[in-house]
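In response to reviewer comment 3 from the previous cycle, which asked for concrete evidence that the modeling workflow produces usable outputs, we include below a single protein chain processed end to end. The sequence was submitted unchanged, and the resulting structure tokens are shown without manual editing.
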Amino acid sequence: MKKLLIVDGSNLLFQMFFGMPARIIGKNGKPVQGTLGFIGALLKIIRMVEADHVLVAFDGEYITERTQIDADYKQNRPDYSEMAEEDTPFSQLNDIYRALEFMGIRYKETETCEADDWIAGYAKRYGDQADIVIASQDRDFFQLITERVHVLRYRGKNTVICTPESIREKLGIKSEQYALFKSLTGDTADNIHGVKKVGPKTAAALLHQFDTMEELLSNAHRIEKPSVRESILCSTERIRTNYALIRLTGTEELPFEPAELTFQDSGFTTTQTMREIGLM
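The workflow returned the following structure tokens.
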């Protein structure tokens, strides 16, 4: 295995479903814009990184450990059960699965964890054996970045590859500190509340002084600015809870061995794939 590409399938589906300029109706009379965008983006990403192993991981509809840690976790997300089926990204999942099968790409939907946990597992277990690219807009993956594990944020011609250097330049922290950084600042996308008086610049400054969560919490009395010191001291439980929600341990059982993820690009196009699965 030279290069493993792991795609956050649910993330890419939402990006394409809501990012396409208009609803597109397929041969079957149903909307297919999410499927069309997903296939096109996936093929571009695969060829961009020259992956020889590929996995697409999707989130299943199950209660996860994070919800048990904090009942408010992701409770700010829309309730798609109240919408017409064709207005939700999930209505096109089966078509995407058929497309992946045609292309010979392994995919799997989680049952007891989030796709993030599987992705972290591959990054942590195999990141010293091969180059790994994680394709997702989810910044939580920044904590997994190393010299051999990068995060690709697909934006067509404006696609960005995130490395240890780019994280340091953009946020002023080490990539392995990202989970603690977000534990302090919060994450509105996942309904995780941050610590009062601690924004990105203050969080970065704290992480220059204190390298880990335990070091920060055990030495919080040494923080110079009174308002920040008091806020950290009063938010110990919140910080620990946030860290448990954001940190990716990579300890979940993985769905496939790396040898099962081999991919050989046959040169097919998006249009060809759509035709093969009966949508064009």
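Strands lie at 3-8, 53-58, 106-109, 131-135, 149-153, 160-162. We consider this sufficient to address the reviewer's concern, and the full set will be provided in the supplementary archive.
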